[in-house]
Amino acid sequence: MKKINELINDLVKVKNKYNEVIQPSVSNKQLGELDKLFTEQFSVNLSEIYKNILQITNGFNENGVFLYGSETALIIGYDDVFLSGIIDSNLNWHTNEDFAKFIFYADSDLYLFVQEIETKVFSFRPRDNFDEVLLETTDDELFFQIILECALEGGIEEKYCE
Fold it and tell me: Rounded to whole angstroms, how far apart are CA atoms 122 and 104?
């Protein structure tokens, strides 16, 4: 989790540079409720790394990369910009039966960051060609590291794909 924490610290620095702040963390009670509701709704457990991130920042929107929060909420500092919650987002994604086999953790204008429910494998895929898998891993820490790097630096295809 060390690399994740370093990347979140970098995110805080970027936000501070523009007089913005990260979303507040979730409480243990909120996290417990989310975990229970999510498992009931989708029959799969949330990633432990994702839950750890929520205890630091309740999702984020940076450079067009959205890591879903615990619930749909206003982005701090805005009156009309919302960050989608993970349950709401997945209910929306699952209206397409091809997507119902996946848990969506984040998205951007270029990529979708998902976990296959049956195999538990994490992957990121082009938004415009979901069947193409750019990278697969069972390492959820690497998966969320890639999401944070995409938000902060871009260039994830060059770094992680053949």
Answer: 10
